[in-house]
Amino acid sequence: MAEFADADMGGVDGEEDQVGAGQNADAKTSLRAGEDGDEDADDDQESCDENSSSEDEESSDASSDAPEIGLDQHGRIAPGVRGPVNYGFRAMHGCISLSEELLADCKTVFSARQAEDGEAYSGGETYFVRADETPQSALEQLALDIFRFHADSLIYDASKSGAEWWTLVLDDDSDVVFHWDKDYGLEDYGVNVFPHISTVTYLADPGGATLVLQKTAPPRYSDPIEGPAGPLVFCSRPRAGKHISFDGRLLHAASADLLPLFTGDDADPMAATQGTRVTFLVNIWFNHMPRDAESLPDKVRKKLSLPAMAENGSEASASGTGIAPAGKLWTRAPGVAAAGAEMGPATLHVPEDAGANAPLKTLRYAFGEEDNRHEVVLTVPRPPGPAATDSVLLNFEPGVAPRVVKCTNEGCTDAAGAKSSTTTSSSAANANLNANAMNETDA
């Protein structure tokens, strides 16, 4: 049966502990967005030559301004950041100074709406603050502080790096569907480019668990994404002041279905989500800014708290109108390691045969565009009891490991050709949110 044990944090795609991987900028892939090319298996460099013919003038214009993207052997931006980047699953507490002003600012910025049936993404927006900018509001300062925490001792181009950020303020019956954080402005050119690190900072206790799967998407948007998505799944229960981070290439979501892993109660998981879920989301980008990256509009910024006082005692530069400066929101100093700061997750081993006393339950989550739908198939055990921590690492045996399957009007087909209905899990069917502009992992 399933039992909790000490966590063994594994890497993704052969990256040892996911620390320092992707720094080799010599072996890289060069992609001109929006164009097709042939892959040479004997060459480390793959090039996509310009497609000289176009179906119409519009596609020709789109091709002409398409950027050339350099990717390393792990699918990250090249030339890469220099230094030991930690891409592993991390969770730490006491990172935020919580206040009513902070919550009010997050509610002001929140612009997401529930996705309607058939829509690929929500109508939310994200904002960007460069690493070399002076923050003009308390939330922009918080985003930069989180960026600097994860960028400590790394070498990068500050003029092309920074924090993509946004907030989510969701009702207790709202989930976030599976998605990848990426530069959605490049999707029209057929290229997937991901942030180096994705982060979630919880500002309240309610809400479903964050789920992060070991599933990356290919560099080309048109390439298939179905296949294995394991064997590890990282689950995080929200706790006010808690901060998590993970490899920005990984598929993730937020759902109440996994809350029984933490409570030990296999009853209605919605009972543990009562209240408003508030999260502050930051994607860490090095040497690349999302194509559609924009600063927070002044009309919104003027409603927010000002940044904290500068070290010399003067008020930080800001465009707000008369709103008092916030205190220092991010309280974790760069370079602080696991000593008292980070808590490793408890590991829950999921065997192929859990036995009659601990039957497995299969959850299905639909995601993607209407004409390109997929489904995450996730098999979870009955909880053996309350988890000792608010982070759990599910370790699946091969026969029950999660997977992504392709869906059509006739159903969803896995790699073996078996079909299933496209029914989603009960809580995922409640007002799912995707995040083109909200790239969430709200939990």
UniProtKB/TrEMBL annotation:
Protein name in UniProt: Uncharacterized protein
Biased composition (Acidic residues): 36-60
Domain of life: Eukaryota
Species of provenance: Hondaea fermentalgiana
Region (Disordered): 1-77, 414-443
